[in-house]
Putative amidohydrolase (Gynuella sunshinyii YC6258), 277 residues
Amino acid sequence: MSTVALLQMTSSTDIAVNLETVSEAFRQLAEQHPEVDLVLLPENWASYGNRDITRESRQSLEQQRMIMAHVSALARRYRRWLIAGTIPFKYNVKQKPWACCPVFDGGGRLVAEYRKIHLFDAIISDRHNRYQESATYCHGSTLTVVSTPVGRVGLSVCYDLRFPEQYQRLRAMGAEVLVAPAAFTRPTGMAHWELLNRARAVENACYMLAPAQVGTHDDGRQTWGHSMIVEPWGAVQACLADETGWLVGQIDLARVHAMRQTMPNQEHRIQTRQRSQ
């Protein structure tokens, strides 16, 4: 058995405020739950709605590296493995950033990263109406599974949840736990968030860990929250609603392996051919 902690927060455009919020949350977690093995942050936790950090400027590069250094220091200080949501990251001024999901070990070392593959370009019935993530970010192209104290973890982000083939490939790569830090809109979250997380868990016989943004943000956007831990049978093991704070739960890999033995659906896949008449 191992223990995970998912942070649900309402990030602002002020990077310094968000960094302080996460630092204080870590301090409280260390006091209240010293048993935690893995910590997870939501999507875009450090700079939600901040446009400067994705611009073509030297300052944006400095901000991105500062955020990475901050979370590395938190992982090292509290000796916790950390999946740090997403952070805009690029190598030079002229390129668009990736939405990068970095993984740090308990010594603060960057041991893996995933760059969000599926970018959210959609028309949604809220006050923002149109979302075009691809105007700001580059698509990633590589899947990542990393060995952690809680098992083999397959990385994904938010909109990836709508693409089940990505998770099937992560399962084939050895994933036992799937993660999806997110910032679901309120309309899509209300309709689909729990459904998607439970489906990805049960069809792959994996735990699903989904830390989320929640509430009304500086630009007026509303995110759904409801950070959750879903067990391999598809039941929601633990969930927050619209409050901020930590969601703490346990991972039992024996349940993963037991389900895969009793229902080995990955072995039952049939290659099909297409025919149109």
Q: What stands out?
A: Residues 76 and 108 are 4 Å apart (CA to CA). The longest strand covers residues 2-8. The helical segments are 15-32, 58-78, 164-172, 186-204, 253-262. The chain has a mean pLDDT of 96.
